[in-house]
Design goal:
- The chain has helices at residues 8-17, 24-43.
- The mean pLDDT is 84.
- It has one domain.
- 44% of the residues lie in helices and 0% in strands.
Amino acid sequence: MTAPMPDREQILALAAQAGLTLPAAYEDELVAAYANVRRMIDRLPANRPRGDEPAHVFVPTKFLPTEN
């Protein structure tokens, strides 16, 4: 189930919350781009546990050289 698409004002409010300050001339471009990004996000599988993602269980110290 996907969330409803936010309207223009909600998208601009999200940008402001993220600290993005845009000139008015770019607001239309941001709103158009958000629609594209939203479609990509909606395609990501969200029904898998976080433990399935290798980055969440990666232990970099295992790759240190061993002392002999």
